[in-house]
Amino acid sequence: MNQPHGDLGALRIDRSAAGRPPKKRPIGLWIGALVVLAGLAVFLYLLPRLGGSDPDVQLYTVGYQSAGAGSSLLTASGYVVAQRQAAVASKATGRLVFLAVEEGDRVTEGQLLGRVESEDVEAELARAQAQEDVADGALGTTDARLKEARLQFDRVTDLLSRKLVSQAEYDAAEAGFKVAEAEVVQARAGVEAARASVRATMVAVENTRIRAPFDGTVLTKEADVGEMVAPFGSSQSARGAVVTLADMKSLEVEADVSESNIQRVRLGNATQIVLDAYPGVRYPGRVKKIVPTADRAKATVLTKVEFIERDEKVLPEMSAKVTFLEAEQAEATATADLVIPAAAVLERDNETIVFTVTDNLARRRVVQLGELKGGLRVVVSGLSEGDQVIASPPPDLRDGQKVRLP
After folding, report:
1. DSSP state string for 298-309
2. Hey, which bits of 239-313 come out as E strands?
3. CB 258 within 8 A of CB 300
4. CA–CA distance, 208 with 238 (Å, rounded to integer)
5. In the chain, where does the domain assigned CATH 1.10.287.470 lie?
6. C-alpha closest to that of 72 among 252, 281, 285
7. What is the pLDDT of residue 278?
8. Do the Cβ atoms of 381 and 345 come closer than 8 Å?
9. Fewest CB within 10 A of the end CB: N or C in the chain?
10. C-beta atoms surrounding 113 within 10 Å
11. Alpha carbon of 85 to those of 81, 92, 304: distances in Å?
12. If DSSP codes are grouped into helix, strand and coil, which group holds residue 90?
C-alpha cells in the first residue's frame, strides 16, 4: 500500500514558462493595425490637398518691361471704338422671316444676314418676267413682218423700174414697209420697258434681303424673326436696325486729353495702350488724329489712337488708358523684354519651371529664361504676354495641387 502512494507523489504539473503552451494572438488585432497604418498613409498623402492646407498664392501677369518705362508725356483715359461700324437695316417694310447670324458671328461683304417676307414682290417679279416674254414674242413677230414688207417693197421697186406695176402699187408697198419698220421700233421699246420692269421688281425683291455692307463682326442683334422691320424713320412701331456690325480691323482708342496738355501731343506720337480688362498687357499704338475741337463741358480734346499691334481680346467699348511716350521711350519699348519675377522660378529634375493657375489648380510649365534684371528674369520661351504665373510658389508645390487666390 505504501508503494503506490510514492508513485502518485511523483506526478506534478510543470508550471514553468518552458512548460506552458504558446498563447494564440487574435487575427483581428493584426488586421486592425494594418487598417490604421493604411488610413494614416492616405491622410498624409491627401493632407496637402485638403481645403484647410491649400497654399495661398499671388499671381503675376507676364508683361514687357524696358528701361524707359518710368517716363512718359502724359496719360489719358478713353474707350475702344470701331472706326467702321454700321447699324444694318432692311430697305423694305415687312415681317422678318429669316435671320442667319448671332452676336459674335463674322460675316463677309454681301453675305445674307436676314430676309423680310417677299411673296408679294416675288409674284410681281414673275408677272414682269412674263410680260418681258410677251414683249420678246411681239418683237419677233414684227421682225418677221418687216422682213416680208422689205422683200415686197424690193420686188415692187424692181417691177416699177420695168414698167410692170403702177405707181399706186409701188406706193402701197413702200407704205407697208415703213409701217413694219415702225412696228419693230414700237416692239423693241416694249421689250425695253418690260426689261426695266423686271429690273425694278428684282430690286424690290433684293430690298427684302438684308446683306452685310462690309467684312465685319456682328456686335448686337436688334430684331428677331417674326418682328416687323422697316427702313429707319419710316415707322414708329417697327424695328429699324436688324444687326449692328463692326470692322474689327478698324478698332482704335478715342482718348480725352486735357486742354492744358494737348500741346504736348503730336500726330504720330508713339503710345502704349492698356485695357482695364487686361492690365498686364500693353499694346503699342500711334496718335492717328487730333480732333480740331474741344469739349466745353469736360475741357478735353478728343484724340484718336490707332493700334499698331492687337489681338482678339481687344473689343469695342472697352475702357482703356493711353500713355503718350517720349521718342526715346518709344524706342526702348520696342525692344522691351518679356519678364517674370525671379522668385517665380523653380529648378526641378534638371528643368526650369514656373506654375500657372487654372481653375484654382497649379499647373507646371517648363520655360527657358535669359538674364536676370533687377529681380526679374527675361523669358525666352514657354510664356506669352498676359499669362499669369504664381509669383512665389511654395518649394513643395506640385502639378495639379489646389491653391487659394486672394
Report:
1. TTEEEEEEEESS
2. 241-246, 251-258, 270-275, 278-295, 300-307
3. yes
4. 15
5. 119-206
6. 285
7. 85
8. no
9. N
10. 22
11. 9, 21, 16
12. coil
Average pLDDT of the residues in 149-173:
91
The fold for domain 119-206 equals Helix Hairpins (1.10.287)
| CATH 2.40.30.170 domain range(s) in the chain | 74-83+248-334
Q: Extract the C-alpha cell encoding 44.
A: 498624409
Residue 318 CA to residue 283 CA, distance in Å, equals 14
Q: Where in the chain is the domain with CATH 2.40.420.20?
A: 54-65+337-390
Distance in angstroms (rounded) separating the CA atoms of residues 254 and 77: 8
pTM of the predicted protein model? 0.57
**d(C-alpha 203, C-alpha 212), whole Å:** 17
- Residue 342: its H or E element: none
Q: How many CB atoms lie within 10 A of CB 321?
A: 16
Q: What percent of the chain has pLDDT over 70?
A: 82
CA distances from 315 to 50, 109, 242, 243, 318 (A): 40, 21, 21, 17, 6
CA atoms of 256 and 254, how far apart (whole Å): 7
Average pLDDT (82-106) is 91
Other C-beta atoms closer than 10 Å to the C-beta of 64 total 19
Q: 154: part of which helix (H) or strand (E)?
A: helix 119-161
pLDDT: which is higher, 141 or 48? 141
Cell numbers 428684282 label which residue?
202
User: What letter represents residue 351's amino acid?
Assistant: E
The rounded mean pLDDT for the chain is: 84
C-alpha to C-alpha distance for 333 and 284, rounded to whole angstroms: 9
Q: In the structure grid, which three cell numbers stand for residue 194, read together?
A: 418690260
Q: For residues 18 and 92, what is the distance between their CA atoms, to the nearest angstrom?
A: 114
* 54-65+337-390: CATH number: 2.40.420.20
Q: What is the pLDDT of residues 27-64, one digit of tens each?
A: 666 676 676 777 776 665 555 555 446 888 888 888 77
Confidence (pLDDT) at 20: 53
Residue type, 64: Y
CATH 2.40.30.170 assigned to 74-83+248-334: yes
Burial of 162 (0-12, 13-18, 19+ CB in 10 A): exposed
Class of domain 87-116+208-246: mainly beta
